[in-house]
Amino acid sequence: MASSSTLKISELDFNSIKQNLKTYMRSQTEFADYDFDGSSISVLLDILAYNTHYNAFYLNMLANEMFLDSALLRSSVVSRAKALGYTPRSVTGTSAVVDLQIFPTGEPATITVDKNTDFTSVVNNISYTFNTTESTTVAKNSNNQFFANGITLKQGVALTHTYTANTLNPDQKFILPNSNTDTSTLTVKLKNSVDESNTYVYNKISDVTTVNSTSNVYYLNEGTDGKYEVSFGDGVLGRKIASGNIVILDALVCEGTVTNGASEFSLAGTVGGYSNVTVATVTTGFGGADRESIDSVKFNAPKNYETQNRAVTVNDYKRIVTSEYSDAQSITTWGGEDNDPPVYGKVFIAVKPKSGLILTAAAKDAVRTVLASRKIVTVTPEVIAPDYIYLNINSSIKYDSLVSQNSAAVIADNVKSAIVNYGATELNNFDLRFRYSKLTTAIDNVDPSILGNLTTITLTKKIEIEAGVATNYGIKFSNEIYHPNDTYVGSIVSTTFTYDDGLGTIQSDCSLDDENSVLRVVKTVSGSKVVVANNIGTVSYSSGLVNLVSFAPPAISGNTLNITITSASNDITPVREQILVINTEDVTTSAIADNTDATGSVTTSSSIGY
Predict the structure, then answer these.
(1) pTM for the whole thing?
(2) Predicted confidence (pLDDT) per residue in 342-352, tens digit
(3) I need a surface site. Which of 360, 364, 391, 553 has the fewest CB within 10 A?
(4) 59: part of which helix (H) or strand (E)?
(5) Residue 277 burial (CB < 10 Å; 0-12/13-18/19+)?
(6) What are phi and psi of 57, to 5 degrees?
(7) Strand (E) or helix (H) holding 405
(8) Residue 434 — very low, low, confident or very high, per pLDDT cuts 50/70/90?
(9) How far apart are the C-alpha atoms of 19 and 50, rounded to whole Å?
(10) Prior bond to 574 cis, omega within 30?
């Protein structure tokens, strides 16, 4: 039997493998005149090619699963991350803060709000269970009332799992059997035996260098089935458990993101034995998150390995918060030396939450807790809310009605949607610039009939004002304010408020204006601008800084003042904690038919605005 001098083995797809088999068979003298395409042996070649292709695919997938970058299965990604000392984040329950007023029967000296006291909240017509996260004891105040303020609730159902340790069983595992377990609520306790009443609390290991043979610590890892497993020390790195020890695992099983925004809570049982309790919501539900995704694990595991679970550089702070604070949509960090003004000995962490725009006090505390055991002693982390700059977009579109299949109304509406979508995809996070050319290009691409657009941009900051209290406000736009000369009037405009004119009269419908870098309060009377108060602050056009000095309007709608400027550049650059936002209500569009032919004649013209 003759043999081929060259075997082709590099092809992996089905057809190429089959063709190689045919070529090899034809090279044999026994099959020199055989028709492989038309014979039944073609079926056998199909089977051989399929088997070869199947094995090649399997081996390729197997090789991919051995590396973090190329792995596709969650179990493989988790296993590779485990080698880097990284545990994927579990599902996280929504948190909320409430104040309780308790009306007891009798005259108790104190009332205790026990840990895991049940509350309920209805979200989208579904009732969910919330629990208190810790025990709190309150005494009556001077008015003989019982108030428990700042009580933190966590969404979830409290479950306890008990195991009897058997060190002779090498396959025994201490599993949290529900895949929706919130591991941040996990408490691990041990009893020496079933008959002993004393329990010993074990803490999750955070720094292996501080652990010895008698340390009561546990290790937590995600298993191949997606459930979390608790393990204990080996007698060197942590206390080793013995047969007969009772392992008690307590944790909440939660629903993740679906309960974010929960705003009304009611007591499901009793507080200290009393059911007459009023519940006032301080902070609506926030922080609920689903299990960490495969892509997130791939990204965060190497970063966590680089930091070695320590916060030293500003990037370390960002990576740790990104990894462990589940409600963060976007995070930016900077050192105090880069702050304006500089504050040495601090690192600043700005967090934009997934649930809404406002970073609550409770959320700030949660971020500080994440960093508490990782930060350098001499550095203080300062958690701050994002500083939003709102972009006002006015776009006038010209289109050829002879080409377009849409009306002016539809084109204007579609352009508005495109602008809002641009803001959602290109902005809305830290360190993202607004590029004017990208927006105008996106507008032109909305409809084939669009001939061009004239789009203008202004910037607005929304400032919380305490009415009647003289306060200094520094409003940073961080972009140069348009001013053709130093005496230009009208670079600053604002929403209205009332103001004392200094002569004992409270003037209504006042607003801010500027002249020659000086802020003033003005109002319009009979079509003319009248100055109510002069020199109430300054404007630095070059740096984009607006300063209000001892500003105390007696009344202002919603306690919010909107200040709007026109930037000297159409490209807007935020700095540090600033985020650019485009809201639907801040976008105005109009469409105008422009059917001018080559001779300059206009056939029709119409417009509509939104």
Answers:
(1) 0.62
(2) 888 888 888 88
(3) 364
(4) helix 41-64
(5) buried
(6) -65, -45
(7) none
(8) very high
(9) 12
(10) no
